[in-house]
Amino acid sequence: MAKLLHPKATAVWLVDNTTLTFKQIADFVGMHELEVQGIADGDVATGVKGFDPVANNQLDQDNIDKAEKDPLVKLKLKFNPAAHDEDKRRGPRYTPLSKRQDRPASILWLVKFHPELSDGQISKLVGTTKPTIQAIRERTHWNIANIQPIDPVALGLCRQSELDAAIQKASKKAGAVMNDDERRKLVSTEQSLGMDAEPRMPSSMEGLETFSLSDPRGEDEDTEDEKDFADADSFFNLPDGGNDEDEDDN
């Protein structure tokens, strides 16, 4: 899909050279209607030189004339064959010079936390070569001792949506997700957080599933014990009273 060149400068030109409504201009350049009004009032885009969309083959004059007569008519961007499929990236990703030294750290992060990603996927995400990825996987990179894993999204080497899409694609090839640890490795962060947690018992508590605080002997034995100690004499097993009198006589 073709995109408008210099939208703000185009809006400045349309405000200065046409009688189009603010809404018509805003819809065409992809700005808010109040922002276009700010351009007309001189509060926005101060010092920006107007960009003629007619002279630069982005808009037809006939379309402008019709839109000026009817506020409901929308401006239409002219089709440019050279801009066809311009959103599709071709070839390796370009990485700015200022961020190229961060690529090994991002590769190590992807290899460590998402081993299911292929070398081709990592290469597209961070704009590197497969030999570099293989060297980091095998820990034969010349600077492997000093590399710390860092999220490529945090470094600005790729977008979170691109990383999630690559992880989802890799997870489909890997098959079903079994446990928590494998699930967090194979699926995206958003998807893993949406899954139900699996109940896990600590190893130190295994074998205690049937443990109970109740007396295993049952209620009948408890009743018998209560009967045995119903009176003090039976509890202390005191001697008969006649023996005490005999001892006093002696």
Automatic annotation (TrEMBL):
It holds the Pfam family TrcR. Residues 189-250 are annotated as: Disordered. InterPro entries: TrcR. Residues 218-228 have a biased composition (Acidic residues). This is Cytoplasmic protein.
